Amino acid sequence: ANFHFLFLFSSSPFISSPDHLLLNHSFRVLADSGTEIAIVLDGSGSIDPEDFERAKAFIYNMMKAFYEKCFECDFALVQYGSDIRTEFNLQDSWNANATLQNVQNITQLCNVTKTASAIQHVLDSIFNESQGSQKNAAKIMVVLTDGEIFLDPMNLTTVINSPKMARIDRYAIGVGKAFNKPNALSELRLIASDPDESHLFRVTNYSALDGLLSTLQQKIIAIEGTAGDVTEYELAQTGFSAQILDKQHILVGAVGAYDWSGGVLLYDWVTKIATFLNESKEAKEAKYGYLGYSVAVVNAQDGAWYVAGAPQHSMTGKVLVFKKDGSKQILQGDQVGSYFGSELCSVDVNQDEETDYLLVGAPLYHIHGEEGRVYVYQLKNGFFSCVGHLSVQAPSAFARFGFTVASIGDINKDGYVDVAVGAPLEDRLLDSSTFGSIYIYNGDKNGIRSTFSQRIRAAEVAPGLQYFGQSIDGGFDFTDDSLIDITVGSFGNVTVSRPVVRFDVTMRFTPERIFIFHNNSIITAELCFNMSSPLEASHPIYLSCLHIFLNFVLLQPCDYDCFSSITLKVSYQLSNSNENMDHPAPMLDIYQEPEAYFQVPYKKDCNNKAICAANLTLRSQTQKKLVVGDTKELTMDISLVNSGDDSYMTTMVLKYPRNLQFKKMIPKVRSWSGCLAHFSVIWQLDEALFPDQTANITINILKDRTDLLVTGEITFNKYLYEGLKEENHRAEVSIRAPCRQLGPFLMMEMKEAAEGRNANVFAELLK
To answer: Is 227 a domain residue?
Structure first.
């Protein structure tokens, strides 16, 4: 017998016992056809209890053998004696283990032998669609009896000739010497279908029943060499691929089913029911297609879809998508021998619990020699469409890129799921002792990036690794450090990935701005590095800060740009190794530049606004008439007035016709005598007396045209003057209105005044 095992290794709470599943014994396959076997057991009083137990053992062994050979066999058992009793029907037999246990629990009815009534009961109550019988299923009846009919109200000939008996193949087993009698033998022959040689069996006693098992198996179950050239499940290799869907379902591949056309089985742990999915049992082009070589589950809007790869189908490979509504979508390979569909991976990039992409591996894709390729299919509007393939900058010959593809979780913590692809034969031609690579492709808001972020070669991990990347898995924290790990299989080794980290860099300046007209300014900068990672609260978060003193010196007077912010560039890198570490050393995220830029702005007179808002008005006046050939000069009076905040780096462009020649520009200085200006002066005051450290002062200003000195008189009350801590003060003065001619910045010096606390203020106009 062929046994198909699927071994399960998991600490998950919903996979407990058994540790391995003998699929043939534990499920029936839902299909439109199949084989239905009704066993009719004689439980009359003429059978000794010991022989009845032997009959039960024979039925048990027969059903167990059939379960191992026939995935689509359903059983029902009817016992007859004083009554007609259904021990279990076709639906009950879907749970094979429970059904076999029911056989052992059968108790004998005894009394009369109502064989005809029992057969009619099978026609009425077993082979009935309302009782779970399939319309197109092959129907078989096996009658086990020890003698002729006794006290049966029904006529056997009438029952056998009933229209319901059409298409039912009947096998009769007679036990004991009673069938030496002509009447008993005639009844047995009537029960059995023609020819008798293949449908009627006689044994001398119940102990000899076991000798019929092999014969019945060959007669009833179509196996290779006895029922045509097509095998069904005998060489199915169930469990060649597998994926757990949820707490109740598992999807397994059966590449050898139906002459290696293959298929997949969706198994229900609770009901013990499996559904067989394939292209078609009759499709000639599916033969040797290996459907089920790989399996995957797609979470679509209407529910789960089941995906299976057939890498040898039509020589180019094929992927079948079995949708919830029963329809199928076919993804076809485009190169002969590429093994398209040998690897499948569904990816939920944005982690919204709906599949976004299906990755299909074609590891034997040929350019110069089996470089391999991974196709990217996007799920949109209920269909998969190919949007490209994952690229490798310089594909290595015979690398077999795409041999394995795995969704590895969000390893760079950007909110999008990432993917790893194995190329287990890469670099083998260069070094046969160490070869293989894996590639990391990151997800983002636009999908899966087509270019890899990391290429990890076996030689970079450890010497002697072979077939590095032949298996990959991830998305879990194996090392208990709250970071997602990736496991990579190689010949005799398993390696674990290095964690990826990101740094948030901040810089804070004190003071926050530079004074423009100071010859030098010293600014303290606090530079901080904060490592972002999914650490739990019990783990320390990496945070480090440095204090830097920045000294800005004015080397030469500004002649153009005196107001643009100063830009600082900070570059960083990790200097660590795996030495002296319990876990692999982290590495920087390749998508984050290892540098940061910060700006130190100049202090500008914008009335404490972040951006100066100038209000420029341009007016011009010129001659109304210009006589060509007579007018010697054309004079224009231009007035540019700013009634808003200060305007920096202001430029005026004058355009004139080509037949004119620019001569000169004469600036006109407007004379003025004085004005009333309101100043907001920031002094260094005693904090205890003046917590806000500000005072509003009104000054009358006069400007001297020759030496550009501004003089004025300031009066403090006694309370304010005593709050000053020093005699000499540097103050920043903002002119509110209306004396724009003074300019925005003044250097003020206060000297001690006479009695009465009056003070003279000398302010030098700076340009």
So the answer is: no
Domain count along the chain: 5
Q: In terms of domains, do 413 and 386 share one?
A: yes
- Distinct helix (H) and strand (E) counts, the chain: 11, 44
pLDDT confidence of 283, banded at 50, 70, 90? low
Mean pLDDT of 360-381: 94
* φ, ψ for residue 102, nearest 5 deg: -65, -35
CB atoms within 10 A of CB 581: 10
Res. 546: pLDDT tops 80: no
pLDDT tens readout for residues 434-458: 999 999 999 999 999 999 998 989 8
Compute how many other C-beta atoms are within 10 angstroms of the C-beta atom of residue 759. 17
Please, are residues 39 and 75 in contact by the beta-carbon 8 Å criterion?
yes
Q: Contact 141/125 with Cβ under 8 angstroms?
A: no
Residue-wise pLDDT tens digits, 510-529: 888 776 656 566 778 888 88
- The pLDDT, as a whole number, for residue 749 is 43
Let me know whether 482 and 536 are in one domain: no
Asked if 35 contacts 137 with a C-beta cutoff of 8 angstroms, the reply is yes
Distance of alpha carbon 199 from alpha carbon 515, whole angstroms: 110
Q: What is the pTM of this model?
A: 0.54
Give how far Cα 640 sits from Cα of 445, 648, 664, 665, Å: 50, 14, 18, 14
**Does 388 lie in the same domain as 330?**
yes
Q: Do residue 523 and residue 448 come from a single domain? A: no
> 657 and 521, same structural domain?
no
Residue-wise over 396-419: b if at least 16 C-beta within 10 A, else e? bebbbbbbbbbbbbbbbbbebbbb
| Six-digit token string for 433 | 């002792």
| Residue 7 identity (one-letter amino acid) | F
In a domain, 98, yes or no: yes
Per the structure, the complete domain to which residue 539 belongs is given by 503-600
Please indicate, yes or no, if residue 527 is contained in any of the structural domains. Answer: yes
Q: Does residue 226 lie within any of the structural domains?
A: no
**Which two tokens mark 248?**
């109740």
| pLDDT level of residue 731 (50, 70, 90 thresholds) | very low
Most confident of 67-76, 369-378, 614-623, 699-708: 369-378
